[in-house]
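The material for today's practical consists of a large collection of protein records. Read left to right, the backbone structure tokens trace the chain's path through space. An example says more than a description, so a record of this kind follows:
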Amino acid sequence: MPLSPEQQAEIDALRAEPRPTLRAVSDGMEAHLYRAAPVLDHGFVRVVDYMGDDAAICQAARVSYGRGTKSVSNDEGLIRYLMRHWHSTPFEMCEVKLHVKLPVFVARQWIRHRTANVNEYSARYSILDREFYIPAPDTLAAQSTTNNQGRGAVLEGEEAARVLRWLRDDADRAYDHYEAMISQDGQQGLARELARMNLPANVYTQWYWKVDLHNLLHFLRLRADAHAQYEIRVYAEAICDIVRDWVPFAYRAFEDYRLGGATLSATALDCLRRMLKGEEVTQETSGMSKGEWREFRAAID
């Protein structure tokens, strides 16, 4: 199960005791606070705490007092200007602390984003649960023939059944041995910090992850992208739902300029101008490599 009974009880207790505050709050984020959004088969994302809102971004940009005197429309326009011109500092004024439960191999991808504060569940001190990520059949895919780090067609028939069986059996066998090694029933028992090395990369871990909005949006731009690995992308999409409610002006600008936008090189812009003038431009006459040309065409077609 994504949440243990103890975790659910803690969440229920926290939500049952709202407290008055003088600090800026986001109504959209308050609705998410403490609640766990399920991800994959045993994972979740939940908001533990946050600071700031759309107004905090504008306040920092204007270096003003309180919530400022500008209209809401001016605030949204300013945020779009900041996003459009890559002014990152005002977005750093907002922060969020997330509690995430995720497979270890996803965590190892995630931790490459080194711009956050992280504290992970320790398998040196505690015993990991018997919880493993097993892909759904429609996400069990072959190696891509065109992308060395991507997936191709979905596995079918006996091959798919065999792979799923091996994943489940190997995970259970590894955990059986893990339990046997740390057991102190009739033996000394291997240290937990050593026994954990036998567990597979699809075992679940948990961490607290605190990050400012600027670096969070950078994470989402990469990990919510269609080319990102499915297992980390679904976590990014769950976080997108949270950010959309937390800072709606900033998220709309992010969708427009980052998720839905494209960055063109000087060479690509020159090609686009030539094409708008009616010139037929090919990869050979563009000055771009085959890869650059393919990406350029994907952006404008």
